[in-house]
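seq/struct pair 1
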Amino acid sequence: MTLRWYVVRVQSNKEDRVRESLLKRVKAAGMEARIPRVLVPTEKVNEIKAGRKRVTQKKILPGYVMIEADVDENDEVRAMEVWSIIRETPGFGDVLGTHSHATPMSDEEVRKILGQMETSEASPTLAIGFAKNDHVKIQEGPFEGFEGVVEEVDPERGRVRVMVTIFGRSNPVDIEYWKVEPV
């Protein structure tokens, strides 16, 4: 038995529902050994909204589900059993690969995604929704109401450096990222 990981496209924002439906179908068909794991890859992310810090789940591959399956290409009947369980699941889109042949993920890709999930479980990353050159408006503090351009993002400290024009000169302002909003 050779287990390989495959990526399945599903309806967006329905990944968890498709996962649950597929797991029920696998159990009903008694194919737990052939399809042992179905994952919606997520990572934990720290967010600060309205001054409150909270941990949320963010999908690593939105619109996709990872399936570990034993699809023996030499035994077409058994392979068709596995694919029919997967393809007949409500919300299923298609398997990544060519029309007639699904392409399994490389071991490196699987290690990277599973590692990212484990790392975020131990220490969630800070989600900052800004990037360099984004136009923002400062919402709090002494520069409230000023608009500027993001010069630098420091996710470790949860701060952004915004270039604000004061008296005709561009000045850097370091501020917590939740105190600015996109323009």
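seq/struct pair 2
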Amino acid sequence: MKTKQVKKTVYILPNLLTAGNLCAGFYAIIAAVNHEFERAAVALVLAGILDIFDGKIARFTGSSSRFGMEFDSLADLLSFGAGPAVLMYLWALQPYGRAGWVAAFLIVACGALRLARFNVQADTSDRKWFIGLPIPAASACAATTILLLKTPVVFDRPLGIVFILQAYLLAFLMVSTVRYRSFKELGMRQKHPFSFLVSAVFLFSIIALRPRITLFTMAVVYVLSGPVEMVLAPLLRKGLLAVSGEKRRKANQRPLS
């Protein structure tokens, strides 16, 4: 009886980008340990960019594979789980003892749970949405906060509590059922209106002009977009249904000519 042979081949380009993501995440940990916090934060942002492009290129070239997905998840856990957790702990959370390291640990633990859930639901979930905050977005929020403030925080009780709460919030959102837009429908093969290109050019210009503020704002807006949309969407649907019902009622009351 012939056994089925398994192909021992992998796609080079997307997996090289994933390896770059892994390298950037590892460097971020090394830089954080050496108290080079700004370099560590930049490395995490770079890891996020590489993570975006490895998936885009894999889909564009038709080179998606199970191996690539598992490799990407392992790289993401280091780059966007352990990386920001170590960075935030050494930058702001260490003086707060148990509360600090527990907050950092939750980022790693909830990030791992988020990735495991994503892998399990990958074949059945709606491509337009992520269930729970994506782990790269949580990492970007932490990294851009450090880039915005530039220097380590002056450790006083109120300010430290803010960063502990930020870590808890990011951890909770990753394992929540809050839906976030994936933007996977913005494929490179698809046609888009000219205004889309103009908007992208303006966005890149703003990032180049004020990278710290712009990247921080984008990260925070995306993190908050899920809960805000979850609250507003039912209200908007209810309002639209009420308007539609009112129009139908007026149309039924209109006398026939």
